[in-house]
Amino acid sequence: MDHTNHVRLASNELTTDILDGATIYGADDEKVGTVSHLHGSEVVIDVGGFLGIGAKPVAVPANQLNFMRDEDGDVHAVTSWTKDQLEDMPEHQD
C-alpha cells in the first residue's frame, strides 16, 4: 500500500474512538496487528492470532506509530517494527 497520499492524523484525533480496530502495517508493509485500545500514552496492539482469537496484546509508545487515513477514510498506522519483533515483546496487562 502506498501511504504517501494518506492524510496524517492530528494529535487530537488519537483517541480510542478513532483508533480502535485500526490496522497496523510493519516494515515491509505487512499487516502486523490491530489496535486494541489506548493505555495512557501507549497503544495496545493485538498481534498474531486469527480474527482476534489467540492474539497477544503488546503496548507500544504512540509516537512510534504513524497514524493516517487512506482514500476511503479508513484509519491505519505504519511502524518500523516487524510482526516477529512485536510478538517478541512482553504481553500487555491492563
Describe the protein:
By secondary structure, this protein is mainly beta. It has one domain (7-87): PRC-barrel domain (SH3 type barrels), CATH 2.30.30. Helix content is 10%, strand content 36%. The protein is built from two helices and seven strands. It has helices at 16-19, 83-87, and strands spanning 7-8, 23-25, 31-39, 42-47, 56-61, 66-69, 75-78. It has a seven-stranded mixed sheet. The radius of gyration is 12 Å and the shape is globular. It starts with 6 loop residues before the first strand and ends in a 7-residue tail after the last helix. The model has no long low-confidence stretch (mean pLDDT 91).
The gyration radius over C-alpha positions equals: 12 Å
Helix content: under 10%
Q: Which structural class best describes the helix and strand composition?
A: mainly beta
Could you give a short account of the major beta sheet? Answer: 7 strands, mixed
Domains, number: 1
What's the quaternary structure here? single chain
Q: Order of strands across the biggest sheet?
A: 1-6-7-2-3-4-5
- Provide the residue-averaged pLDDT: 91
| Fraction in beta strands | 35-45%
What is the CATH topology descriptor?
SH3 type barrels
Output the CATH class name: Mainly Beta
Name the shape in a single word: globular
Q: Specify the CATH architecture.
A: Roll
- Report the CATH superfamily: PRC-barrel domain
- For the record, give the distance between the C-alpha atoms at the N and C termini, rounded to a whole number: 32 Å
Unreliable runs, pLDDT <50, ≥5 residues?
Answer: none
Please report the number of helical segments.
Answer: 2
* Strand element count: 7
Order of helices and strands: EHEEEEEEH
